[in-house]
Amino acid sequence: MPLNEPTSEFLLKLARITYCDTPTARYLEEPRGRYVGQGAVVVRPRSVREVSEIMRLCNTHKIGVVPFGGGTGLVGGQTLVTGPKPVILSLERMNSIRDVDPADNILTTESGVILADIQNAANDVRRLFPLSLASEGSCQIGGNLATNAGGVNVLRYGNTRDLCLGIEAVLPDGSIFGGLKRLRKDNTGYNLRNLLIGAEGTLGIITAATLRLMPKPVDVETAFLAIPNPQASVEILNRLSTKLGEVVSAFELIHRQGLDFLNETGIAFTKPLSSNTEWMVLLECGTGGNSGLKDNLEGILADAFDAGLITDAVLAQNEAQRHAFWNIRESIPEANRRVGVISSHDISVPVSQVPEFIVRAATMIETINPQFRINCFGHLGDGNLHYNIYPPKGENRAQYDDIRASLANDVYELVDSFGGSFSAEHGVGRMKKADLLKYSDPAKLSAMRAIKHALDPNGIMNPGAVI
Fold first, then answer.
1. What mean pLDDT comes out for the span 165-194?
2. Which residues have CB under 8 Å from 349's CB, separation 6+?
């Protein structure tokens, strides 16, 4: 159903509900510079009631609505490029943490709260909210929920959906879903919470959430390893999982290209290892007190060293060194951005097949241009790789815009042959809609369209995103 351009009369009605302003670049440009969107107005409601009134008005007048969180999404989900100008609905003023209850291990928050502030609020009551991303200082929890964000701790704690007990949301017709329950078990029909989480703002607007908190580990061990090849990382992970169980919270595969980019772009970091190895692993484990974790981890790593799976290793001796290790991993995306990627891919394949995928993908890219630089890194523990292709040093990504789409297609075809996914944690947005159509099961697409039509018959929610 076609949408309408906002009229002056409509904008006057909108201004009676909440604060309105002209969109600035912050609300129109996505981080990688691939999309510059448009918007008639930015609204910044303070309450779920205001969101409800805004949605009811937009639905009545058939005006598109683009939800906006921290603006850190990487697939164009927050930018509408063509069509009638939408209302950009920012949740930045809905930024209160409503409740923190360590007895129930829950935190109830509005959607505009920055992820790092939620982590700090949990830490204040000696609890852990384990969602951790490179953008955690600016991304908002509403956006994390809308995209079902992953991050470095998925191996142990799961995606954002796994960390949420309940949500409050406004549906396209303005009705309010008050699902902020604190229950671990609530088997009462369709799970609207899980439907809205990961829908990228196409089915409704999440305004608040009840989140799960975890016991804060007392003993934490962090290690940086030099390894001979990616296959060694899979074998090390298997040894850790077998002998330590679920205490492994993060297991990150890092390529030397990432550190080279840090040097190239002037981002400060402390070199973790004396050797100049091609492949590295950053791992972290955490347990309760008096667990013997350090001795157990050292024993496993020593055995792996003897087996030729590790060529060098450093265990963090204090919190400062641990932060230095993680600073490397968390700074790589910024270095990537400064270098300028030709084609980036957030993909997943079965963990056991990651090494073969890396070899075959590198061979494929080399046949296209042997001078291309590949920065392959990511969450090996859950099979999620960020497989990014960069121009030769001294050249600009714009020189290769004509082959960007074909590069992505080649990578995704290879991923599909491994039974993998073209989008592991970033979502579909507007960038990957054609890939969704190409690689998804027809029955899934049909069900998605039916759900979209049932909840949003006028098509006002984030028009042009996902489906």
1. 93
2. 357, 383, 385, 415, 418, 419, 420
Query: Can you tell me the distance from the alpha carbon of 14 to that of 12, in angstroms, rounded to the nearest whole number?
Result: 5
Under 8 Å between Cβ of 184 and 211: no
Q: What interhelical angle do 8-17 and 48-61 show, nearest 10?
A: 160
Report field, pTM of the whole predicted structure over 0.85: yes
Query: Residue 150 has what pLDDT?
Result: 92
DSSP string, 179-192: E----S----SS-H
How many residues are recorded in the chain?
467
Q: Which residues contact 233 (CB under 8 A, 6 or more apart)?
A: 227, 251, 253, 279, 281, 354, 355, 380
Q: How far is CA 240 from CA 150, 163, 234, 245, 353, in A?
A: 21, 24, 10, 7, 18
pLDDT at 383: 94
Q: Which CATH number fits domain 97-215: 3.30.830.10, 3.40.50.300, 3.30.465.10, 3.90.320.10?
A: 3.30.465.10
Phi-psi domain of 60 (left: phi exceeds 0; alpha: psi -120 through 50; beta: other): alpha
Averaged pLDDT, 87-101:
97
Are 168 and 180 contacting, i.e. CB atoms less than 8 angstroms apart? yes
CATH of domain 219-417: 3.30.70.2190
pLDDT of residue 357: 98
Q: Does 31 score more than 90 pLDDT?
A: no
Q: Is the CA virtual torsion 16, 22, 26, 29 positive or negative?
A: positive
C-beta of residue 211 within 8 angstroms of C-beta of residue 463: no
The terminus-to-terminus CA distance of the chain in angstroms comes to 14
**Among 79-88, 111-120, 181-190, the range of highest mean pLDDT:** 111-120
What would the mean pLDDT of 387-406 be, rounded to a whole number? Answer: 95
pLDDT of residue 256: 97
Q: In what order do the strands lie in the sheet with 65-68?
A: 20-21, 41-43, 87-90, 65-68
With left for phi above 0 and alpha for psi between -120 and 50, is residue 288 left, alpha or beta?
beta
- The residues spanned by each domain of the chain are 97-215, 219-417
**DSSP 3-state of 4:** coil
3-state SS, residue 424: coil
